[in-house]
Design a protein that fits this description.
Order of helices and strands: EEEHEHEHEHEHEHEHEEHEHEEEE
Largest sheet: 7 strands, parallel
Strand order of the largest sheet: 10-9-11-8-7-12-13
Oligomer: single chain
Helix content: 25-40%
Structural class: alpha/beta
Distance between the termini: 25 Å
Shape: globular
Length: about 325
């Protein structure tokens, strides 16, 4: 449904004032993104449906595709007597990026979508307000009371799936079972010593490595994962607090108390119990397309779809 003009709150004060809180468009949204050209369609569709204009800067490796897609959008807009200015594509050049980041009074908000390096660059250089759609350094804690089948079903693949498995020391002998399907997909594992010693007799030698300090707090963006053995849930929580990007975190457990402790204690946009963090996605959440996954606390958090591209104003 169209998110504009929705009345979020309505009340009458004792002094006779009648208050309404109504949704309104953000205005002009600047999007800087890497690689995937489907983002061009997604951002335009979400922006147009929520009453916003968008200024796009895609990556150089998809420049031709992005240009062709925007030309198709312009053609359709003209066919329906709509202004083509509501979507603009800037060249994938540093000067264009700097201009967009400094377009105060012209652009209302900037949303970077891509690597941690891109997000850091935008945050550090933008004069326009930024909504961070952050990197997904994602953990799953396999608790002392975990169900083996639920643990084995956790995915290692897309950018919001598993980077680091935290496993309770009492369940470390489950590792060969948990990882049995990963070798078929050539998943590289960086395991701490305890986990390495358990896996070395069952996991391919070429795919198994001893973990180093760099193995933790890393978004691998490939078929790789790290494993850390922990003594209890508190140690798992401490590890996640240290390395989390506040994207998505999960616990596998049949202990209701531990689940509740985990869900309350972890500071992330999305927290899970007994399922995969790979579900952090606008389509999976029933929101349609997404403009990104916000990892910050102010304003939007988690998958950003139509409603997150609106602000509000008070009508009195």
């Amino acid at each position: 449904p169209n998110p504009l003009g929705k009345i979020l709150l309505q009340k009458k004060l004792e002094n006779g004032l009648e208050l309404e809180k109504r949704t309104v468009a953000l205005g002009v949204i600047g999007i800087i993104y890497e690689a995937r050209h489907n983002v061009t369609f997604d951002v335009f569709a979400l922006s147009a449906k929520s009453g916003n204009a968008c200024v796009l800067i895609g990556g150089s490796d998809a420049a031709a595709s992005n240009k062709a897609i925007v030309e198709v959008i312009w053609k359709v807009l003209k066919k329906h007597d709509m202004p083509t200015d509501i979507v603009q594509l800037l060249p994938p050049e540093r000067t264009a990026t700097q201009a967009l980041l400094n377009a105060v009074d012209y652009v209302d908000i900037i949303i970077p979508r891509g690597s941690q390096g891109l997000i850091n660059f935008v945050r550090e250089n933008a004069k326009v307000p930024v909504i961070e759609t952050g990197a997904g350094i994602v953990h799953t804690y396999y608790d002392e009371f975990a169900d083996k089948k639920a643990g084995a079903d956790i995915r290692v693949s897309v950018c919001n799936a598993l980077d680091c498995l935290l496993i309770h020391k009492k369940r470390i002998e489950d590792l060969p079972y948990l990882t049995q399907g990963l070798a078929e997909k050539s998943v590289v594992i960086y395991a701490d010593k305890d986990a390495f010693d358990v896996l070395k007799s069952s996991y391919p030698e070429s795919l198994l490595h001893l973990a180093t300090a760099d193995s933790f707090g890393t978004e691998f963006l490939s078929l790789k994962m790290s494993i850390k053995t922990v003594n209890n849930i508190e140690v798992a929580l401490q590890h996640i607090r240290k390395y989390s990007s506040r994207h998505s975190e999960a616990i596998i457990s049949d202990n209701d108390e531990n689940i509740e402790i985990f869900l309350i204690s972890i500071d992330a946009a999305v927290v899970y119990a007994n399922t995969s963090t790979a579900f952090t996605d606008g389509a999976q959440f029933g929101l349609g397309a997404e403009i990104g996954i916000s990892t910050q606390k102010l304003r939007a958090r988690g998958p950003m779809a139509l409603e997150e591209l609106c602000s509000y104003k008070w009508v009195v």
